[in-house]
Design brief:
Layout (H helix, E strand, L loop, with lengths): L5 E4 L3 E5 L5 E6 L2 E4 L4 E4 L3 H18 L6 E4 L4 E5 L2 E2 L2 E8 L2 H7 L6 E11 L8 E2 L1 H6 L5 H23 L3 E15 L2 E7 L7 E5 L9 H4 L5 H12 L27
Antiparallel strand pairs: 1-2, 2-3, 3-7, 4-5, 6-7, 8-12, 9-10, 9-12, 10-11, 12-13, 12-14
Helix pairs in contact: 1-6
The chain binds thymidine-5'-phosphate (TMP).
Length: about 260
Amino acid sequence: MNRRRRIYEGKAKVLYEGPEPGTLIQHFKDDATAFNAKKHAIIEGKGALNNRISEFIFVRLGEIGVPTHFIKRLNMREQLIREVEIIPIEVVMRNVAAGSLSTRLGLEEGTPLPRSIIEFYYKSDALNDPMVSEEHITAFGWAAPAELDEIMQLALRVNDFLVGLFLGIGVRLVDFKVEFGRLWENEQMRIVLADEISPDCCRLWDISTADKLDKDRFRRDLGGLLEAYQEIARRLGVLPESRPPKGMGPVLVASNSPNGKPN
Ligand code: TMP
């Protein structure tokens, strides 16, 4: 079916050549991986959910002025994006101790952090994405100092916005990972948010029950990954089935108005 030229295949997504120069099609697969793909499963429906959730978040971020690669969703699994040069750094924002931070510093998971913390990991499967500092990033030329400043400012804005967005649907944004790219327009270069933001790359805990609604369900063999992603999509209002089926919406009923006619 896919006769398009495949540009890149990652663990959870494929990038195809887009319909116009400077565009790509980002296809969300159902593959779930963890621990540098040592653990792998196919979870039917995950790709479609991440496509919807990431679309919703990128559109909202665009509305508050965060530049992104997103153009539009094309279908259940695919979105049209601008082609960018990915900066080989995973930017992790943390609000609450969990995961590798808890392990590294001996912090109990769930401990609120004194302030939001930003971390950088060098994107290299061969090296297992090692943690790096700003010094490494600029010394090795992965990003220029001005680019890194821009990346940090954007990551903080994304974090501030997403903390509020998720709070509004009863979810605690513990941490998340984002990626950025260089977008050229005419002779100008801008840093834009790229990749995806979905429960695959966030930790999302229900505010009242502390249930995990993210990929830790897969990493930690908790089960119920699809249901968790569906719950996030439902609360964000992007689960297609969340709309009332035809004929099940609000029903207009005639009321007794003084003139005997329905209001
Ligand atoms: P960590 O606690 O394992 O370092 O993960 C921090 C955040 O980054 C968490 O929300 C999960 C996300 N993440 C990815 O998106 N991809 C990865 O490869 C890893 C290790 C973490």
